[in-house]
Amino acid sequence: MKQMCKCFSVVFLVFAVLSLTAYSPCMAVAAKTDKVAKVDKSNKLAKANAVFDVKKMADMSDFDPGNPVIPTGDTIKIAVVAAFSGPSAYNGQIYYAFAQWVAHDINKRGGIMVDGKKKLIQVIKADHMSKPDQCKKVTERMALQEKVHFFWGTDGSHFMKIINETANKYKIIAVNVTNMSDDLMDATNFSPYAFHAAFSTGSAARGLAYYYGQIRKKETKFYILNQDYAFGHNFADAFKKGLKEYYPEAQLVGEDYHKLFLTDYAPYLEKIKASGAEVIFTGDWLPDAGNLLKQARQMGVKIPFANTYIDEPNYLNETGVEGTKGLVNISAYFDTTPFFKTPEQIKFYKTWADQAKKWQTPPYGSIAFTHATANTAGWIMTTYWLMSVIERAQSIDPEKIIKVWENDSFQYINGKVVKMRACDHKMILDLGVTEFVPPEQQKVSMNIPPYYWFKNASYVGQVFKIPAAKVLPWMDQKLDRCKGKNDWGE
Which of 168, 198, 224, 489 has a 20 to 30 A CA-CA distance from 295? Predict the structure, then answer.
């Protein structure tokens, strides 16, 4: 699903996300701030049009995702379209918490000036129940009855496609925060009202191939095991392409696909054990990602997973230090280690961590929300990016939003700069890959007390940067807007 985005591996890497510093609608433009990273001018991601200003962040001491403060009236309405019931409900709960965090911060600052009036942010749950027909119904209701201004999604690229179609029909901006599937923005499915603000299948899968072939240079035998729908197949194809490009000596010893929300992976794991594979490549997202890991270890399959979403803290801690050691994870948020390079990053991280200790409402009181996560950090940043675009457009008019967001660039608190390619609305960015290590080795990334992320699980170690130039997102040259342009969109 999005590769699930999906799903949320929800919580991953320590609120590095939060380490991220809060954006601040009141985000300064790059030319007027000294917070833009000074990078080599040859780097096409060296400068950002807007950056965070953590000093403008509101007092978040009253934030509780289980008991959110939701404004009403003349507001800027954002529908978080996700599963809030059914097998994927955990993902919706995660998304809602992060979207509400951003909304709470901005609302306590007084909102955003749009069309001559300051307005607060109202986040609305739109439950698609992991059912296509329900997704269509709920997005139609959000458009016609709730009259939302933005769609925010979702757990499943097949659902993001429906969201984008509804957005195009009613001229509502749809922000793809979590889904990776490249075909969402191809010549057939592209909509000028949809923005793919997540890393893509092509970029992430090729990034893992680059890591194994150009950086790690150890394992050579790979087995692909993915969810059996468009995302899973696209992700696998991109990995195979990446191996040919960056690791031609590697060998694919097997390839399988399983249905979503499976409960027994034994038949696939037995085949993997017999294949001689050294690495399992998977794009599985929750709950499949966590259940696959746990069953693999229970069956004695100890080889590492190269993954995007096997990083949810509850599953990691249940599996233990040895069972999670060696997992290789690629993230849209990771930049370099250590994680905390500035006082602002530390402040933002602690703001979240201190609040998380108070939460009691399930699932927010679990260990999963202690630090937040890697990919989710990117999700929070994307939501702040949307706020920044609205602020700079000074409007919620979709045409004005499009004008600002196309070719826009934004700097995360960790210094990473991301760019929205104008012709097909895909995000360009550097990626980061890490190998999970035991608690005593986590200081390389968690460089503030207690110098480890988790006592009972292996987690983020050294991060290796994958340059954007090596993993630029796929561009469909059949899309008229992109004809004749290079992968940078130029």
Answer: 198
